[in-house]
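Anyone up for a design puzzle?
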């Protein structure tokens, strides 16, 4: 059984790990976007930049919320937050399947290459998850 001090230190370590991982992902996305822009692919650079910005906004929100919860003495993960994450992930996955079908249908019409379709699908999935998470987090579960 965890003690209160041990649980708090684990939560603080988890918050730091989330921030470090988010910064690595954002830096990688930004570098990839800049490299793509340098090659002359403006659409790919914009898409990569939008993905990096979406992750940045989500990471800032997670950090502010987690920091507030830690200061108030709440754990980062409890039964409700795990249930919200589970429901948001499930719904985002199901809707993402339809998004991928739409991207596959439009790939022969609108996209120049596969990377643009993949970038759109990944960005759409991230946005879908964020929207479903925000919805279920505010709803009583």
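Challenge accepted. My sequence:
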């Amino acid at each position: 059984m965890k003690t209160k001090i041990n649980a708090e230190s684990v939560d603080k370590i988890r918050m730091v790990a989330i921030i470090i991982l988010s910064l690595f992902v954002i830096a990688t996305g930004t570098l990839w976007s800049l490299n793509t822009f340098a090659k002359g692919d403006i659409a790919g650079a914009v898409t990569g930049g939008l993905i990096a910005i979406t992750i940045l906004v989500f990471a800032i929100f997670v950090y502010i919320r987690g920091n507030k919860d830690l200061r108030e003495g709440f754990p980062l993960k409890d039964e409700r937050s795990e249930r919200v994450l589970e429901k948001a992930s499930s719904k985002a996955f199901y809707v993402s399947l339809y998004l991928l079908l739409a991207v596959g249908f439009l790939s022969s019409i609108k996209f120049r290459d596969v990377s643009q379709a993949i970038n759109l699908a990944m960005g759409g999935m991230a946005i879908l998850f964020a929207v479903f998470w925000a919805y279920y987090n505010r709803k009583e579960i």
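A detail worth pointing out: The CA atoms of residues 50 and 91 lie 22 Å apart.
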